[in-house]
Write a structure and sequence with these properties.
The chain is built from three helices and seven strands; from the N terminus they run βαβββαβαββ. The chain is α+β, with helices and mostly antiparallel strands. The protein has a single domain, classed as 3-Layer(aba) Sandwich (Aminopeptidase), CATH 3.40.630.30.
């Protein structure tokens, strides 16, 4: 597996397709709902298998000069439990450090709060409910640990 940045239209099409399939399609949301106004200014990462097939995606965008937000993390369901989520998170944290960001926030779906806590994120509280049923929790991490390492 390798971490890369989508660059070509074909790569971005696959990137957005995986985001839609994992994060929107199960709730009958339309294509395009997996994107927002920060796409052009965001840092995008993807994980490809040895056959160059996309297996995981994630995005970082700066909220201000010190804080970034991680959004749209998705792992192909067939590849869950193999550490791809952790690899993606570490890659996005490294990108945040390279941009000089000091803090990260995210809004985790309820089933993955424990995953983020194991990676050093602090639970701040309930944030919102998406599509009337997906409960999210706001989480925070200060980027004081070493690059490429989770706690």
């Amino acid at each position: 597996m390798q971490i890369d940045t989508p660059r070509t239209p074909v790569q971005f099409d696959a990137y957005y397709e995986l985001r839609w399939q994992v994060l929107r399609a199960p709730w009958h949301q339309s294509r395009g709902s997996e994107r927002d106004e920060h796409e052009a200014d965001a840092t995008h990462r993807m994980i490809l298998d040895n056959g160059q097939q996309l297996r995981a995606v994630g995005r970082l965008h700066a909220l201000d000069s010190e804080t970034g937000q991680i959004r749209y993390m998705a792992v192909d369901p067939v590849y869950r439990g193999q550490g791809l989520g952790k690899q993606m998170l570490l890659a996005l944290e490294d990108a945040a450090r390279a941009q000089g960001l000091l803090n990260l926030v995210l809004h985790a779906r309820e089933p993955v709060v424990g995953f983020y806590r194991r990676q050093g994120y602090e639970l701040l509280g309930r944030s919102h409910t998406l599509f009337g049923e997906i409960i999210h929790y706001k989480m925070h991490k200060a980027l004081t640990d070493s690059p490429g390492q989770a706690r």
